[in-house]
Specification:
The chain is mainly alpha-helical. It has 2 helices and no strands.
């Protein structure tokens, strides 16, 4: 007898795996503008794309919802 509903429990994927799967399976890219794996021009491109699609970030990098 299971003590949890189907689809719950088991191993939880780490955030990098979720992002990797999202890209490979759905073409969705989730990337931080501060990711150290990116060069400065790549981070700047991410920042510009984010601003074009979603507007400027709050001062100090605060996350705002709404």
């Amino acid at each position: 007898m299971r003590l949890y509903p189907k689809g719950y429990g088991g191993q939880r994927r780490d955030p990098e795996q979720v992002k990797r799967d999202g890209w490979r399976e759905q073409g969705v890219l989730a990337v931080s503008a501060d990711d150290d794996r990116l060069t400065w021009p790549e981070r700047e491109l991410v920042r510009q794309l984010g601003e074009k699609l979603y507007g400027k970030r709050a001062a100090g990098g605060e996350v705002r919802h709404g």
